[in-house]
Write a structure and sequence with these properties.
heterodimer, A: alpha/beta, eight-stranded parallel sheet, 13 helices, 12% strand, globular, B: 200 residues, alpha/beta, three-stranded mixed sheet, 5 helices, 30% strand
Chain lengths: 294, 200
């Protein structure tokens, strides 16, 4: 049977649909989660350290402490997501048992498996996965991901990598829509993905699951830029709670995501935000230290 | 020239508003996304989509939509789905996040009453007898609310496991489940046919 029309998959993708037009914020405490919710976040990502700190402190980054996740779940009414290491089937099963609403199989954590991602179909909890291009996106979708996000370069506050990934995915999707049948065979081979998925994207010009942006969002204008480039919602990691005025910045990023074509509103909400996270130029990070290559 | 198609607003602060807009267009009406008060002018009715009711309630205040929308939903046809139903209710049980509902639909609701996402499900909903022309529909319950009390003026059009899931009060049609995730337009067709003024 076709897994993509399975009712279980439909309700997983359904939750991703409900998050569209919203902002998903990284939080490390219940207090931050409440601030995020009241600022207008559509969901929160519960984790132990934001990507900027993981990058700075180094060491192995794992699934968050379960008490932290439980506290955050109790603190808010919006969906709570949590990250599992790439390929760590058991971290994911534990998060599912904890009833988090979405699992991010994330390159921000230290990968547990350098060869395989999790087979996500047997889970009842939905997964989101990062990608840099159409090949990565469709491979994760063929493994059962219910939502795709760009990887960007997490913890940098530099939007350029998310922009690159959004641009690449969009232009690769557009290219598929004008291909002949034999070219589609070639594209499936080149991107290492099932022909059926390539055919579907060729027909619709869109991914079969929601396509969100993540990695390096630090300002309201960054969030609106992602929406302009085709993202359907925005994840913000370190950008909020590593800035000088998290609450104001969070509200402004929400306003800019909702009204991403209304520049007057973005301007109005971009005043008095204090300092953005300092950040790192993603181009200055050597490839072996980049998270997006994971 | 005036269009003879109905013009429906879709509250587009957050959520699956694009799905509702697609349904409205498939149903033969015109859809307009509503993000600011001016967007309400000239609408024949409105859809309050699925999404996060906490987020929508906060943004209604932030973008000065609460008052004009309260006036609109009290007097015009409304199709409310999931979070949209919560926004219309008179009472929200255990209202932890402080969602401020419009109170035009005389029900009490329990948010995420069927459980968190791992308990979300998809099922067939059979409307009760005598609901003129309302066919069985496929419904997705996604962190769906539960209706815990129904006021006297509310008609229950469908139940699931003995509980109301599709209701009507005056010009408001409200569901706790989603039908807009597919291109099955039976529910929007029903709404357009029975709730909107005839344009011909």
């Amino acid at each position: 049977m076709d897994q993509f029309t399975d009712p279980q998959h439909k309700v997983k993708v359904g939750l991703a649909e409900m998050l569209k037009g919203g902002v998903i914020m990284d939080v490390v405490t219940a207090e931050e989660a409440r601030i995020a919710e009241q600022a207008g976040a559509a969901a929160v990502m519960a984790l132990e350290r934001v990507p900027a700190d993981i990058r700075k402190e180094g060491g192995v980054a794992r699934m968050a402490d379960l008490d932290v996740i439980d506290n955050i779940k109790r603190a808010v009414t919006i969906p709570v997501m949590a990250k599992a290491r790439i390929g760590h089937i058991v971290e994911a099963r534990v998060l599912e048992a904890l009833e988090v609403d979405f699992i991010d199989e994330s390159e921000v954590l230290t990968p547990a498996d350098h060869a395989y991602h999790i087979d996500k179909w047997p889970f009842t909890v939905p997964f989101v996965c990062g990608c840099r291009n159409i090949g990565e996106a469709l491979r994760r979708i063929s493994e059962g991901a219910a939502m795709i996000r760009t990887k960007g370069e997490a913890g940098t506050g530099d939007i350029s990598q998310a922009v690159r990934h959004l641009r690449d995915i969009t232009s690769q999707m557009r290219a598929l829509t004008v291909m002949t049948e034999e070219e589609l065979y070639g594209a499936a081979k080149e991107h290492r993905v099932p022909l059926s998925l390539v055919r579907e994207v060729a027909k619709t010009g869109k991914l079969p699951v929601p396509n969100f942006a993540a990695g390096g969002v630090a300002t309201p204008a960054d969030a609106a830029l992602c929406m302009h480039l085709g993202a359907e919602a925005v994840f913000v990691g370190s950008g909020i709670f590593k800035s000088s005025e998290p609450e104001k910045r969070a509200r402004a990023i929400v306003a800019a995501t909702t009204h991403w074509t209304d520049y007057g509103i973005i301007a109005e909400h971009s005043h008095g935000l204090g300092e953005a996270m300092k950040g790192i130029d993603a181009m200055s990070i050597p490839e072996e230290a980049q998270l997006q290559v994971r | 020239m005036m269009s003879d198609r109905s013009l429906l607003g879709i509250l587009a602060l957050q959520g699956d508003f694009a799905r509702h807009a697609r349904q409205v267009e498939l149903g033969g009406a015109e859809a307009r996304l509503v993000r600011l008060p001016d967007d309400l002018h000239g609408l024949d009715g409105i859809c309050l989509p699925g999404g996060e009711s906490t987020t929508m309630s906060l943004l209604l205040d932030r973008f000065a939509l609460r008052e004009p929308l309260a006036e609109f939903v009290a007097s015009k046809p409304v199709l409310a789905t999931c979070a949209g139903l919560i926004l219309l209710a008179t009472t929200i049980d255990d209202n932890q996040a402080g969602v401020k509902p419009f109170g035009v639909l005389d029900v009490s609701v329990q948010r995420n009453g069927w459980g968190r996402q791992v308990h979300s499900f998809d099922t067939e909903i059979h409307p009760l007898h005598g609901q003129n022309g309302l066919p069985p529909v496929r419904g997705s319950f996604i962190r769906a609310p539960r209706i815990t009390r129904v006021g006297q003026r509310v008609d229950v059009l469908a139940v699931y496991q003995g509980e109301p899931v599709l209701i009507r009060q005056g010009a408001v049609l409200a569901t706790t489940f989603h039908t807009e995730l597919t291109d099955d337009t039976q529910l929007i067709d029903y709404f357009l046919r029975h709730f909107l003024p005839d344009r011909e």
